[in-house]
What we know:
By secondary structure, the chain is of the alpha/beta class. It has a single domain (5-154), classed as Ribonuclease E inhibitor RraA/RraA-like (Glucose Oxidase, domain 1). It is 17% helix and 39% strand. It has helices at 5-11, 46-52, 76-84, 99-102, and strands at 16-18, 24-25, 32-40, 60-74, 89-96, 108-114, 126-127, 131-133, 136-138, 143-147, 150-154. The strands form two sheets. Strands 1, 2, 3, 4, 5, 6, 7, 10 and 11 form a nine-stranded mixed sheet that branches. The protein has a two-stranded antiparallel sheet with strand order 8-9. Strand 10 and strand 11 form a beta hairpin. The N and C termini lie close together (10 Å). 43% of the residues are buried. The mean pLDDT is 97.
Amino acid sequence: MNFTTADLCDEFEALVKIAEPLFRDYGQLKSFYGEIATVKVFEDNVLVRKTLETEGRKRVLVVDGGAALKVALVGDQLAKIGHKNGWAGILVNGCIRDSVEIAKIRIGLKALNTVPKKSIKKGLGEVDVPVEFAGLVFNPGDYLYADLDGIIVSEKNLLKS
């Protein structure tokens, strides 16, 4: 379904919240949306992988990595897993790696930046909890819409037929 965040902001001004413009685009899809699922981690991507290994159902995984810039929380292998399992996109409050390969994968992916170092693997963190960054609270079950102009969030699906 075609949409722009600008048009959604105009049409549903009272229903949307706008994320601070902190993120860069890395995935092949520059426009994506879906119901939010969340993971909260710090320099550890085990729960990110476990979540992307589940059925995506065109959802968007919002990863709160605490804005850490020392390690990558998503690389090309996790992006491929997300695409294969039907995830619409991934938003990372942190870094990714393998950006050249990720640009070839049919998934939306926004992150703060890139860094080549992989994450630790302890499995620490939380899943399906509200996370807060970029001036917003991302609640599981809300909807995220992203394109080259930015990211907006709504409690309701604004694109229902």
